[in-house]
């Protein structure tokens, strides 16, 4: 299970431009179990946004945001509302945020930080999508995680080894930062590329706070171990 | 006059790469430095270039300073976390090293210890911010330091990067954060360099064009295959292929370097020579390029 927690509201509001119209998406899978998804998160985010003058044009809980097909189908049912939005805010693990970004050409912002996968990785077959760093920066990288797409985990653009969209580490491997650049250009948000991101707080990769361990799954595992 | 003062006064500067030895013997490295000292303004010392284990950059810098010459310390993020970076930088300052070139560093799998753990705790943009913190008398966590540094910081870019735009944005960020000079990856296509230099003009930062003498067509092909960010155009490779004897190869190599320098000179404020073992050619290259 991927354990996530909602970001502080100041951080979420910091992603949005004044009065920007927002569509909310919340995951009904792991995130809901962690109380960072589902209807609960949707309502919490709606009240935060509306209290600060951001019109919420709609919201939707989708069963597993890590599943691209389900996300595509789920969002197509509310496409008129999604179209109306200028940005999407997603309460899910980093995989879920990236799935939504992958199916839409709009800015997609994370409402959560992902802390750990426990023993199970979100199901988007074939690739690691989330590094559970505990301070999600997908807001600044076009919904593509630089920690997983760039072997060096760079936060401010491609290294000198990137050439014609290829990574220096392995021939044929796409340069993650070229992908991020292209995406930000497409959604008209290259300003986000130029934001300085402070060095990451690696402590957040190390441990999961007690409050987050209180899901039924944690309880189950701990009981099993004790027996 | 110091390297930074020369740049500030608009002087055309010449720097030369010095590679620390693969081993504990510094004799040859220092002989090369002494041989070229009268021709160049500073020696730029590589930090485990291509992720191949060698003596540390700061050690050779300190030895160069001890000889009375100026050095530029290359620092990469490849194998030091923020603790080690700060420790090494403070130590380098105490040893008299005043110039730093901040780089991301090649991935360890490209080198001779591919099993090594890649670090990259910071990237080169954050490294520049870290150096600014040390210059302001604080560490990265904001703690007061006893005695501050006054490093002159440089950044790198590949002028032949394709597409160039993301690299230019990254360079702009580096300059905004305090990079005061720019050193480029080797230039083999002067037109591409000029296009880059014109786009970087608004950043108002001195640019040093990187120059590598080609040893042979084979070396050019090897670099194209194996060195991150280097692309030698096919026509230069063919030009080198036409040289049959060792003497002829050296002559052509010198001619190519001088030709590139003459073409890029109006668009930059210096050159950075990377002789890679052909230190003996440096005097001829500079002479033919009209720089000595």
Structural class of chain A: alpha/beta
Q: Give the topology string of chain A: H per helix, E per strand.
A: EHEHHEHHEHEEHHH
Q: Indicate the CATH topology of chain B.
A: TIM Barrel
Please give the CATH architecture of chain B: Alpha-Beta Barrel
Number of helices of chain A: 9
- The number of helical segments of chain B is 11
Q: Which overall shape of chain A is indicated by the principal axes computed on the Cα atoms?
A: globular
The helical percent of chain B reads 40-55%
Weakly predicted, low-confidence segments of chain B: none
Distance from N terminus to C terminus of chain A (CA atoms, Å) equals 22 Å
Roughly what percent helix of chain A? 25-40%
Number of strands of chain A: 6
Largest interface: which pair?
A-B, 29 and 37 residues
Integer-rounded radius of gyration of chain B: 18 Å
Summed over residues and divided by their number, the pLDDT of chain B gives a mean of 96
**Strand content bin of chain A:** 5-15%
The H-and-E topology of chain B, N to C, reads as HEHEHEHEHEHEHEHHHEH
Q: What overall geometry of chain B do the principal axes of the alpha carbons give?
A: globular
- Overall structural domain count of chain B: 1
Describe, in plain words, how this protein is organized in 3D:
The complex is a heterodimer of chains A (227) and B (292). Chain A has 227 residues and is an alpha/beta fold. Chain A contains nine helices and six strands; from the N terminus they run βαβααβααβαββααα. Chain A has helices spanning 9-15, 30-33, 38-51, 68-76, 79-84, 94-103, 146-149, 176-186, 216-226; strands at 3-6, 22-27, 56-62, 87-91, 108-110, 112-116. In chain A, the strands form two sheets. Chain A has a four-stranded parallel β-sheet with strand order 3-2-4-5, sandwiched between helices. Chain A is globular. The two termini of chain A are 22 Å apart. The mean pLDDT of chain A is 89. Chain B has one domain: Alpha-Beta Barrel (TIM Barrel). Chain B has an eight-stranded parallel β-barrel with strand order 1-2-3-4-5-6-7-8, surrounded by five helices. In chain B, helix 8 (217-226) runs antiparallel to helix 9. The relative contact order of chain B is 0.13. Classes of the chains: A alpha/beta (227), B alpha/beta (292). Chain A binds chain B through residues 151-165, 168-169, 177-178, 181, 190, 193-194, 196-200, 202, and chain B through 77, 82, 103-104, 106-107, 109-110, 118, 120-126, 129-130, 140, 156-158, 161-163, 165-167, 169-170, 172-173, 177, 185, 228-229, 231.
């Amino acid at each position: 299970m991927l354990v996530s927690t909602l970001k502080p509201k100041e951080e979420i509001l910091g992603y949005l431009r004044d009065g920007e119209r927002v569509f909310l998406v919340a995951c009904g899978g792991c995130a809901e179990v962690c109380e960072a998804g589902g209807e609960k998160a949707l309502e919490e985010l709606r009240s935060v946004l509306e209290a600060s003058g951001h019109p919420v044009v709609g919201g939707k809980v989708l069963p597993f945001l890590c599943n691209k097909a389900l996300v595509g189908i789920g969002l197509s049912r509310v496409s008129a509302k999604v179209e109306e939005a200028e940005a999407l805010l997603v309460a899910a693990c980093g995989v879920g945020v990236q799935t939504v970004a992958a199916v839409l050409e709009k800015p997609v912002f994370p409402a959560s930080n992902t802390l750990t996968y426990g023993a199970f990785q979100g199901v988007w077959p074939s690739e690691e999508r989330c590094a559970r760093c505990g301070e999600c920066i997908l807001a600044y990288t076009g919904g593509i995680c630089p920690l997983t797409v760039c072997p060096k985990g760079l936060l401010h653009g491609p290294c000198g080894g990137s050439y014609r969209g290829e990574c220096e580490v392995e021939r044929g491997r796409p340069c993650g930062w070229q992908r991020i650049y292209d995406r930000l250009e497409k959604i008209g948000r290259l300003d986000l590329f130029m934001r300085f991101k402070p060095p990451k707080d690696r402590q957040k990769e190390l441990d999961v706070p007690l409050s987050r361990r209180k899901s039924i799954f944690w309880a189950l595992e701990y009981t099993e171990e004790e027996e | 006059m110091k390297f930074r003062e020369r740049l500030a006064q608009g002087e055309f500067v010449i720097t030369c790469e010095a590679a620390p030895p693969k081993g504990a013997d510094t004799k040859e490295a220092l002989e090369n430095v002494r041989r070229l000292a009268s021709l160049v303004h500073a020696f730029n010392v590589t930090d485990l270039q291509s992720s191949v284990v060698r003596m540390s950059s700061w050690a050779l810098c300190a030895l160069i300073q001890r000889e009375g010459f100026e050095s530029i310390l290359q620092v990469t993020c490849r194998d030091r976390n923020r603790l080690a970076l700060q420790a090494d930088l403070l130590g380098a300052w105490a040893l008299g090293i005043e110039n730093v070139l901040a780089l991301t560093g090649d991935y360890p799998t490209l080198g001779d210890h591919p099993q090594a753990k890649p670090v990259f705790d910071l990237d080169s943009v954050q490294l520049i911010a870290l150096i600014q913190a040390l210059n302001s008398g604080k560490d990265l966590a904001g703690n007061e330091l006893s005695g501050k540094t006054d490093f002159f910081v440089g950044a790198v870019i590949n002028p032949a990067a394709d597409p160039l735009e993301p690299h230019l944005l990254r360079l702009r960020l580096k300059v905004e954060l305090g990079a005061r000079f720019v050193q480029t990856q080797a230039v083999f296509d002067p037109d591409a360099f000029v296009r880059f230099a014109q786009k970087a003009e608004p950043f108002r930062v001195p640019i040093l064009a990187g120059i590598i003498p080609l040893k042979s067509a084979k070396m050019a092909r090897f670099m194209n295959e194996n060195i991150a960010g280097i692309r030698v155009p096919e026509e230069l490779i063919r030009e080198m292929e036409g040289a049959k004897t060792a003497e002829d190869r050296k002559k052509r190599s010198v001619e190519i370097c001088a030709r590139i320098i003459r073409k890029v000179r109006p668009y930059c404020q210096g050159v950075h020579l990377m002789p890679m073992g052909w230190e003996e050619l440096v005097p001829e290259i500079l002479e033919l390029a009209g720089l000595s």
